[in-house]
Structures are given as C-alpha cells and as structure tokens.
Amino acid sequence: MKFSSLLVAWLVASSLLSAQTPPPQPVAFRIGSVRFDRPEGWNYSRPADGVRAALLEKKTGGVPLIITFTRFPAGSGGSVQANVDRWIGQFLSTETPAEILKPAGTALPLTTVKLAGTMRGGVPGGPAQDTPASLLLGAILESPDGLVITKLAGLKTAVSREEKVFANLVRVAAGRAP
Fold it and tell me: Where does 25-175 sit in CATH, by number?
C-alpha cells in the first residue's frame, strides 16, 4: 500500500515538474528545404494559424518582436516582386524609398527589403491603428520547392537593434544549398 502511494506521489510530482519545464529550443529548423539557425535569445514556435510555418519571438527593451516564416510551394504565393510590392503597400508613408537588395554569391536567390515609416494598421502584436516610426525587414528566399518569406516588423527602435541578427539569419540560410 505504501509503495503504491509513493508511486502515485512521484508520478504527480514528476508530471507537475515536466509541465513547468518549457520544451527545448531547436538549434536549427527547416522551412521547406531551407535551413535556418535559431539566433541566440530568440524562441522558436510553430504558430497555430496554419498560414505561417514558424515564428521566432524575443523581447528587446520590453518590446515583443516576432520574426515570421511563411512558405509558398512553387507556383503559389505570387512572384518575388508581388511580395515586395505587398510589403511596400503596408506603409502609409515611408521615410526613404524602400531598400531592395539582391545579394550575389548565395546558393539560393535572395531578395531583402527594408522599409521605414508609418505602417498601415499597426505593427504585428500592436494596436490596430497606423503606427509611425515602424521598420520592416523582409527577405524572400527562392528555393527549388518554392518561396520562403521571412519578416520582422515593429517599432523602429526595437527592430533596428535586431537588424544584424535578421540579416545574418537570412544570409546564412540563403548561402546553403538545400
């Protein structure tokens, strides 16, 4: 009788401890055939919305930031230019023209976009009103199995602190052959 009571107590305690322990974070993850390395300090999760393939989340200066990853199989999701145009259309006004780069020397074709200004409808996770002083960093990787689109948008002060991390994340992923 004592043994079964001890066993039940141990099972309850171990289940409570495991419920409080967050799952381990992957070092790397794949979106389609493209491998990304999770940056230090960012938490990986799979969203429940069915549109995005993955999220990376972090608080910087008390402001939550989210890097989204979306995959469109070949022939869907529009062209690279259509996606760039969609991002530009998310801004009511910009401080400067969009900075669009197509770096050479990557295994996968890569297009990066940087936009600063007033974002229509606010920033992800923020209020639903137009938000001045916003920054959007976007990247489109063209893999053999389709487009992988990643985006970080939010208040310029917070996003600019993570700009090098974002640039490295997409540059390293684009530099690998799938």
Answer: 3.40.1000.10
